[in-house]
Amino acid sequence: MTAPRRRGRTVRRSDRSIEHILQPTFELPQYTIATEEQADKIHEVSLRILSEAGIAFYDDVALATLRAAGATVDDEQVVRFDPDMVEAALAQAPAEFTHSARDSSKAVVYGGNNMVLAPVAGPPYVMDAEGGRREGQYADLVNFIKMANATPYLQQQGTEICATADIPFHERVLDINYAHIRWGTKPMMGHYPIGMCAADSVSMAKIVHGADRVAAEHFLMAVINVSSPRRLDDRMLGVIREYATENQALVLTPFILAGAMGPAAILGTVAQANAEVLGALVYAQLINPGTPCIYGPFLATLDLQSGSPVFGSAESLLAQTLCAQMARRYDMPFRAAGTYASSKVTDMQAGYEAVMAMLPSMINRPNFILHAAGWLENGLTTSYEKFAMDLELCGVLLTLAGGVSWNDEEWALDAILDEVPPGGHHLGTEHTMNRFRTAFHRTPLFDHDSFAQWEAAGSRDSTVRATESWKHLIDRYVDPGLDDTIDAELQDFMARRRTEIDPAEFQ
């Protein structure tokens, strides 16, 4: 069964210039590796996991809600779901929804052929070529928010793009949200390590947008990390409860390293991840039917010889493709992998890993990619240089995803038939001159000069150019300002909450 689906706004480009995109869309065909019958088998196995093995919910409020809805709860806090409960939740989850922004023209739609890219989230360290690797600071967070808003390649500005070690941990929710509100106008996620932080994020959104608008629209989004295998803790359940009650969006994300938190097998890992998504979905829809949810497992493999995580492995990419098919089967928006890299520096390995992680994501037609820029060192570091390089990669991949334009001018028949003789060239034709700025996507960070030109320009390698690129991005950022009345109300709220928040809540 499916519920009536809301159709969102899709903005298409008028030419090949990515600068004109308000929201990119897919024109490429869907890539599949499973038949409908095989996808049905994944669903059936997932239902068996839910009904026979169950999902642990470590939260008394959640257990009471699930028990009242007809789920079976045992003494170990393990919940077993009847298949009808799962089907009912799938029917209630919207296929598309709009993520609103401070600048309403930058609102984006998840679902359908729409795609949204957001920067990395959560690393405790930052790195740049001049300052090296260090703990993230509030100033770094502000820099990355400015970069996310200055580039056309990210449609969402994310959340904790880097940790802010210079702010007490229990107060960070206030400063992270304020930084995104003050310096950004694209859709933001809020901060959501525990339910209390999610509630503070909602409160600050209400100050900015008004309680009525927050109730009616989706201004915030939280990633719900399932503690695989088959566990949801009180922190994430509290976030689900806060955001779902307030009609805000959720990204349901089992984090599985196959061979550790999941089986050392693709199908078993996908079935487990699918079951975990469905279990979280049921709870979200019980709280508020119609809560917007994104299907978003985070799957990688474990090097069984060393015990280290491996990003961009062939098996994880195959698993992601199966998950994409399941999301489409359920008519849910799909989240895919970003520019993951295990490399410790912005080198050839980092670039290779980023492409190997994100290119397969693109051919799976994702609606959301978190960690699209900046990820380094297995997600422990946000790199300024890699942020800049990843943006160039995003630009190329967005152009690829847009497919081929079939406009009449794309045939260039006047030039072919009337202007260019055999053995001639198209460099000076009217068609070329009309399109020389927009015909092909450009990657100014990457070097395409001859060796002599490159040497004469200073023999700058990609890291040097990336340093220049991220600094230029900050330089071209335009401060949107913030209404003085709203700013004062936010400051009052933050000052009050700093005296109220108990650090013990985070232990």
Structure description:
With 507 residues, the protein is of the alpha/beta class. The protein has a domain at 24-29 and 90-401: Alpha-Beta Barrel (TIM Barrel). Helix content is 43%, strand content 12%. The strands form 5 sheets. Strands 9, 11, 12, 13 and 14 form a 5-stranded mixed beta sheet that branches. A 4-stranded mixed beta sheet has the order 2-3-1-10. A 4-stranded mixed beta sheet has the order 8-7-18-17. The longest helix has 22 residues, at 266-287. The chain is globular.
What distinguishing features does this structure have?
5-stranded mixed beta sheet, alpha/beta, single chain, 4-stranded mixed beta sheet, TIM Barrel, 507 residues, disordered N terminus
Gyration radius (Cα, Å) is 23 Å
User: How much of the residues is beta strand, in percent?
Assistant: 5-15%
Number of DSSP-assigned strands: 18
The portion of residues assigned to helices is: 40-55%
Distance between the termini: 42 Å
User: What is the CATH domain class of the domain at 24-29 and 90-401?
Assistant: Alpha Beta
Compute the number of helices: 17
By CATH, the architecture of the domain at 24-29 and 90-401 is named Alpha-Beta Barrel
Identify the overall geometry.
globular
Main beta-sheet annotation: 5 strands, mixed
Q: What is CATH's topology name of the domain at 24-29 and 90-401?
A: TIM Barrel
